[in-house]
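can u do me a favor
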């Protein structure tokens, strides 16, 4: 009998597989306390109330474009919690604790994907670091915000997250809309990179519905997951190729479009990305405009996002790790700490009439 050669038709482009712990194993080895769970629940509820107009405070999601240095992240959180306490009666502050970065082409994809910043991509270690750091931020006293990019990640960290973004590059993806429909926290869909909001509006609609999709269960088994739908989704305006999209007329128009589709007219303005042309010096004026729209009676405006770090700007990456400057972003340029403090204090002062 002639023996036919074995012809391989799969894994031709795969170099290796590396097993992850199951979500259950990671959650057991890095558990959350009842106090942390209670904090997350209360923070999500506060955000829910702001989205639905039951809490007049401005929701501000502020912090580094990405966390790459845990010590700098801790120092940032320790500073931010003091400011959050000072402003808490008019502004509800949530810290950006971003571990997954979507890239336009290629680049460092965040601390979960590459925790050693050296291309080794030790994802099991990245997931551990992310969980531990989220717990630290909660213990410091700050609600946590992130972008969820890989649909397997939430099972490992979402119990410690209070608000999530689905980014401009993934809002149109069915996978991400399905994932969002099962997430437990309030969530903002960003408009597309071309500036259009249709995909984000469709995403909010899709994520509010029941969905069945392929995911993983707590024991790590690939599973068909059926969701209930996430009622706490809103729009985030981040500008686009044709420029900013946060003017009073645009916000009113988008709120009208949301209402026409039976969705909550709740809109957050991203003071970075294509709204600022990635110039963080422009972020304070965008924040001020968002506050002005609230004072002018636009009830759809619920919040703002600010990319901020200990130091202003960004540094080139990759470069030798020992040459990185402390407190400077290695992804998008950020507003420095002093300017962050002063623009949030100004927003607080300007919001006074709303609370009289
Ligand atoms: O906020 C982060 C970036 O804008 C996003 O991750 C894309 O980055 P890139 O265009 O540098 O790849
Ligand atoms: C990647 C981000 O934003 P966008 O999806 O708007 O580009 C971000 O906020 O980090």
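np, heres the sequence
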């Amino acid at each position: 009998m002639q023996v036919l050669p074995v012809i391989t038709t799969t894994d031709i482009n795969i170099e290796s597989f590396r097993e992850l712990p199951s979500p259950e194993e990671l959650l057991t080895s890095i558990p959350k306390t009842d106090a942390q769970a209670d904090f997350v629940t209360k923070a999500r509820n506060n955000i829910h109330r702001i989205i639905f107009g039951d809490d007049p405070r401005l929701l501000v999601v502020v912090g580094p474009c990405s966390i790459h240095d845990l010590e700098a992240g801790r120092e940032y959180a320790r500073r931010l919690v003091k400011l959050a306490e000072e402003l808490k009666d008019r502004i509800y502050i949530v810290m950006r604790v971003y571990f997954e970065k979507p890239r336009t082409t290629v680049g460092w994809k965040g601390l979960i994907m590459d925790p050693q910043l050296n291309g080794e991509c030790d994802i099991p270690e990245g997931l551990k670091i992310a969980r531990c750091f989220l717990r630290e931020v909660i213990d410091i006293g700050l609600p946590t915000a992130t972008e969820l990019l890989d649909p397997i990640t939430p099972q490992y960290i979402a119990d410690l997250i209070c608000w999530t973004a689905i980014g401009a590059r993934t809002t149109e993806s069915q996978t991400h809309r399905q994932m969002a429909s099962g997430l437990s926290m309030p969530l903002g869909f960003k408009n597309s990179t071309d500036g259009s909001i249709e995909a984000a509006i469709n995403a909010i609609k899709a994520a509010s519905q029941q969905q069945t999709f392929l995911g993983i269960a707590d024991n790590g088994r690939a599973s068909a997951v059926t969701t209930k739908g996430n009622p706490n989704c809103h729009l985030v305006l981040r500008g686009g190729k044709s420029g900013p999209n946060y003017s009073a007329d645009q916000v009113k128009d988008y709120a009208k479009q949301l209402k026409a589709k039976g969705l909550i007219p709740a809109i957050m303005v991203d003071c970075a990305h294509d709204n600022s042309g990635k110039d963080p010096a422009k972020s304070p004026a965008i924040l001020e405009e968002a506050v002005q729209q609230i004072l002018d009676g636009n009830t759809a405006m619920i919040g703002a996002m600010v990319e901020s770090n200990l130091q202003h700007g960004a540094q080139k990456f990759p470069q030798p790790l020992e040459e990185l400057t402390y407190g400077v972003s290695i992804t998008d340029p950020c507003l420095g700490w002093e300017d962050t403090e002063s623009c949030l204090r100004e927003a607080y002062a300007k919001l006074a009439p709303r609370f009289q």
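The pocket of phosphoenolpyruvate (ligand 2) is lined by residues 65, 98, 102, 147, 167-169, 190, 238, 273 (CB under 6 Å). hope that helps!!
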